[in-house]
What does this fold into?
Amino acid sequence: MKLRELIASDLFRYTGKVSFKKFLYCFFVIEGFQYMFFLRITKYLSEKKFAFIFFLFTRLILRHLSHKYGIHIPYKTKIGYGFYIGHFGGIIVNPNTVFGNNINISQGVTIGSNNPKKFAIIEDMVYIAPGVKIIGDKKIGTCSEIGANAVVTKDVEPYTCVAGVPAKVIKKLGPKPRFVTRIYIPK
It folds into this structure.
C-alpha cells in the first residue's frame, strides 16, 4: 500500500473528501487524524533503510502524541485503509493486532493479549464502540458492531452486533454497515 493513498483514505473517512485544504484542517484540528498521519509516516519510514534519522524524528513525535492524546497504537500494527479514531483517549492496542479496511474505533478501547503469538484480527468495516475490551486472539468479522463497554472473549461472526460482559450476540445485521460511514474503497 502506498503511503499517500493510506493517508488519503484516512482523510476521506474524516471529511468525505480528499483535498489539501481538508488535510490541513484535519491535521491541525482533529487529534485522531493527526495521530494516524504520524503513525503512517513512522511505519513507512521504519521500512526504509535510507531514512533512519527521519524515522527517529517521527517516532519521537508519535510517542509525544501517544502521551498527549492517550492513544497507544504501535507503528508496527497492521492497519488497512481508512482507519477512523472517533474520539481520542484511552486507546490501547497490541502491536500484533491486524486491522482491515474502514475501521471505526472509539475512546477507552483495549485490544490486547499477554501472549505475543496470540492477537486479534479485526476484519473490514467494523465499529468498535467506547470502552470495548477485546481479549486474546479473537477474530472480529466483517461489518460487525461491538457495543459500548463490551468484553469480547469469543470470536464475532460477520454481520453481527454484540454487547455485554461477556459479549453476546444482540442481533444479526445486514450487509451494509450502520456506523461505518464514508467508506473508502481502494483503487
Notes: The mean pLDDT is 92. The CA atoms of residues 6 and 81 lie 6 Å apart. The chain has two domains: 1-76, 90-180. The chain is about 30% helix and 20% strand.
